[in-house]
Amino acid sequence: MSTTLAITNQKGGVGKTTTAISLSAALAGEGQRVLLVDLDPQANATSGLGLRDAKTSTTAYDVLMNDDRLEDAVLDTDVPGLRLLPSTIDLAGAEVELVSAFTREQRLRARLKEVPEDVDLVLIDCPPSLGLLTINAMVAADAVLVPIQCEYYALEGLEALRRNIELVRSHLNPSLAILGFILTMMDARTRLSQQVIDEVRLHFGERVFDTSVPRSIRLAEAPGFGQPITTFDPTSRGAQAYQALATEVLDRLPTAIQRERD
Ligand SMILES: Nc1ncnc2c1ncn2[C@@H]1O[C@H](COP(=O)(O)OP(=O)(O)OP(=O)(O)O)[C@@H](O)[C@H]1O
Ligand SMILES: [Mg+2]
């Protein structure tokens, strides 16, 4: 059985997609068989893996809304062990259409029952909102992973996110765990980054991953080449950070999920 992780923060541009792509690729590099679900109509995870123009008739929208088979939509990527459920702008329609749909919060969970047997981990890249697509991801997930950008107001909005997680737990998915918070776009030279790190650690304690992701131009460039950082520049600081994060994620997963299930 696979474990599902939703990468979420309703704040835009905090590094969700960069984390989704880079962590998925790093986990695949650790021998995990990974399915990355692009649940964002912006489809940045799809293009970041060089698959925006892939000839595919079925996408996340069709799987979610038309009950198309998952296996017909899933694409192989150039990274061994990493597959992708691609998104297109069509998915923006799902956010609206789901409002009146039967079992609207549980669609994705139901559809992910079809995840191939050989998949170890499913990572979901969420859109920057607390709408029904994100709720679907949280209901389908065993745990959430929250990227936080190192900036002023980093904690802003996290209270709303926490409330949503609580709502999902109490009504729809009692075993949803918070795997951790990952600090992104950190600039070790600035006092600001250090202040943000201190503040976030004060607030979330050991739930903050030891690894933080440095601000790195290579990470920003990689999607333009349709490659994860682990392929694009495997020795870069960004790649190393996501490799370290992958190790931490694999270390944490069993206890985090067990704790919530107990
Ligand atoms: N560690 C980093 N160093 C430098 N640039 C980064 C880093 N992480 C992300 N970026 C850049 O910052 C921008 C936002 O990142 P990303 O797309 O991952 O955020 P997001 O949370 O998925 O955004 P959205 O909310 O729009 O989906 C992108 O241009 C990305 O290339
Ligand atoms: Mg994104």
Short account of what is shown:
This protein is an alpha/beta fold and 262 residues long. Helix content is 43%, strand content 14%. Strand 6, helix 8 (158-171) and strand 7 (177-184) form a beta-alpha-beta unit.
Characterise this structure.
- The protein is α/β, with parallel strands linked by helices and 262 residues long.
- It has one domain: P-loop containing nucleotide triphosphate hydrolases (Rossmann fold, 3-Layer(aba) Sandwich).
- It has helices at 16-29, 44-48, 60-65, 70-73, 91-97, 107-111, 132-140, 158-171, 191-204, 217-221, 229-232, 237-261, and strands spanning 3-7, 34-38, 75-76, 82-85, 121-125, 143-149, 177-184.
- The protein has a 7-stranded mixed β-sheet, with helices on both faces.
- Helix 1 crosses helix 12.
- The chain is globular, with a radius of gyration of 17 Å.
- The two termini are 18 Å apart.
- The model has no long low-confidence stretch (mean pLDDT 94).
Give the name of the CATH superfamily.
P-loop containing nucleotide triphosphate hydrolases
Global structural class: alpha/beta
Ligands present: adenosine-5'-triphosphate, magnesium ion
* Quaternary structure state of the chains depicted: single chain
**Percent range for helical residues?**
40-55%
Mean pLDDT: 94
Shape from CA axes? globular
Work out the helix count.
12
CATH topology: Rossmann fold
Which sequence of SSEs, written as H and E, runs from N to C? EHEHHHEEHHEHEHEHHHH
Number of strands: 7
